[in-house]
Amino acid sequence: MPLVVVGSVALDSVETPHERRENVVGGSAVYFGLAARFFTPVRLVGVVGEDWPPEHTQLLQDHGIDTSGLMTIPGAKTFRWRGRYLPNMNDRETLEVQLNVMSQFDPVLPEAFRRCKFLFLANGSTKMQMRVLDQCVGPDLVVADTMDHWIRNEPEELRELMQRIDGLVLNDAEAKLLAQDENLVRAGKKILEFGPTFVVIKKGEHGAMFFSRHEMYVLPAYPTSAVVDPTGAGDSFAGGMMGYLAEKNDFSPRTLKEAMAYGVVVASFTVEDFSIDRLLKIRREDIQLRLDEYRKMLMF
Amino acid sequence: MPLVVVGSVALDSVETPHERRENVVGGSAVYFGLAARFFTPVRLVGVVGEDWPPEHTQLLQDHGIDTSGLMTIPGAKTFRWRGRYLPNMNDRETLEVQLNVMSQFDPVLPEAFRRCKFLFLANGSTKMQMRVLDQCVGPDLVVADTMDHWIRNEPEELRELMQRIDGLVLNDAEAKLLAQDENLVRAGKKILEFGPTFVVIKKGEHGAMFFSRHEMYVLPAYPTSAVVDPTGAGDSFAGGMMGYLAEKNDFSPRTLKEAMAYGVVVASFTVEDFSIDRLLKIRREDIQLRLDEYRKMLMF
User: Fold this and answer.
1) How far is A216 from chain B (nearest CA, A)?
2) Which residues are CB-contacts of A144 (< 8 A; sequence separation ≥ 6)?
């Protein structure tokens, strides 16, 4: 099943204790799309400025992503993020955010995207996420991401959104903030009460937790020694997860758990190089091999 | 197989965001012993002062722990630790340490303890750990714990100890310090090169990692919403692990992995109440039930 993702397309500048990269390809929708395309056709909705190199769009297309929903705003600049990772390579500080075109991002879904069965609302304004949802005709599965900024500044809208989506994906700090609870198990359960059928809490290098009415579990991250750049790990986790669900055209508890595992594995590749470089190099077989190892790792 | 543990016996004072307890039973050997006794007879070696209430010793005996190796130093005081947990209930600050009897702890193993097949050297001076090892006749499996203080202050001795033990158990911050590497996967592999056949890195609420020449894996913590007091989680993890190995009288890779899982599960009980209270209440069947759930949680 085709999968529609709406989110940011960015030029990132990243500093790690070892290296730095300026203006590399990034953004939640990009990482998500490049992770999901191993499993299913991806339709990307986003916005860039005139400074966005067209070869980046070409690159996405070459990797099976339908970019007909990627708008270019003349005379405007692409969303830019600059961050620095601490020596533990898990925590980071945002040094600069230039919203640019993202500040008025008001996506219009191409006609062909509206009957999407699988929709992922990547990080962005809750109001914008809701306007996208309004444009979709009878989606089967809608999952959204959010972050501290929207939890703090659009709480009413987020409450409403949570009533309208099937799944919410957010990181540990965001889950604690949203639930007003420092214990992640309680936080996940509280967020369920806000409306979603399932909640996924991403814990960075410590994996991810899943919550539904009848189930709760934790899966660890796939351990890798080659952490080069963690940017996009969370978005590619979501991409791997949603991509697998769309491929299976199923979201039973069993498939959801497998999807979580695929998300973990795809994210473990993402961090092994800067920007999207690793995601461009691997093949579905690499994912499958690592998934089999991961499955074995958790069996006793 | 009987299991000998040498370590601290303490009176702890614990503050959490919700409650506090003064002078409750604690210490690495106590938590370890009470976790291991579900699986195998435990022989405890430690030291207390005159202020140690004899009913605490009775309590340990009532729970199947052989305390004939617990010395009382007349006129001296028991080791005391005071700590405060941060709201996340994972990180803590040590507010006060009174070494008291631990400062000259020089254990003499009772004759009956010397032919121990399974030995755990809980946290303590590396020199002391080595003197204990000297007293053991042909143990089959020796595992040690250590901490930042000894890594910094007895590095030579620790190097020597690591050549003489089978397994080293330590927490994430300690592993990074010992290996001088911020990546835990690399850190674990480096520590293996120092000598132990296997290394276990405890990650608190994020579970534990296992390293041997041929294998590396991560197991998440069992998720619990009822975290009341995390004190002793690491020691009871080690107790559950070693207890299971001693019960099976085996330390094949497969049994080691099962043992890790038992350690995770026992630790998840420990944190559900203050001090040793939860460990005193549960039965082996409770551990087994939770282990089965945990196994299922990790299957996909």
Assistant:
1) 8
2) A120, A121, A129, A161, A165, A167, A168, A169
